[in-house]
């Protein structure tokens, strides 16, 4: 999944006025991938482009024991929740933030071909919806736009940032699905991911600045 990872962030911000700000929740939702592309850049975790490995995604994510194991994702969730608690002293906000981080692994489990693990070693897990575009594509767009609609209804932000975020998320997903496949993994692979994550997060922060607290 790509933009679908932000659906739990939007839903959490819509559902509770004790949730962290939407910009922070956008970081939480993609924290596992922020870490993965950082570790990829450092040569600690590894991937390669293998067109045909699934119907929709050419990334062969063959070594990511720290970020995309359930144990590793739980560790990131606990760490992020602890930081939120230290900053806010709000246990509910911390639990919400941690749950959004952990949602990343659970959503990936739906779409990835078997490349996720429980603790960094086989068996490798993944239900493989990337091999079923007719299911995965409307699912990803649907949960994301549904969550954005819920957020907009609950928080009533200004229309311009909502529409801008809507357009950018759809654009990023279109590039992810239909853009050219890189011949090999380079530093630019991680930098492009950081740019996409950062752009969406800045727009979510802008949107959050214009809204009201949920009732």
Summarize the structure.
The chain is built from 8 helices and 2 strands, in the order H-H-H-E-E-H-H-H-H-H.
Describe it.
This protein is mainly alpha-helical. The chain has one domain. Helices cover 63% and strands 4% of the residues. It has eight helices and two strands, in the order αααββααααα. It has helices at 7-15, 22-29, 31-42, 70-88, 91-111, 133-155, 159-178, 187-209; strands spanning 46-49, 59-63. The chain has a two-stranded antiparallel ribbon. The longest helix is centred in the last third of the chain and has 23 residues, at 133-155. 42% of the residues are buried. The model has no long low-confidence stretch (mean pLDDT 96).
In terms of DSSP E residues, the strand content is under 5%
> Over the alpha carbons, how many angstroms does the gyration radius reach?
17 Å
The largest beta-sheet arranges its strands as: 1-2
- Can you tell me the number of structural domains? 1
Give the overall average pLDDT: 96
Structural class: mainly alpha
Number of helices: 8
From the spread of the alpha carbons, the general shape counts as: globular
The count of strands amounts to 2
Helical content class: 55-70%
Assembly status: single chain
Largest sheet, strands/sense/barrel: 2 strands, antiparallel
Q: What is the H/E string? A: HHHEEHHHHH
| Low-confidence residue ranges | none
Distance between the termini: 31 Å
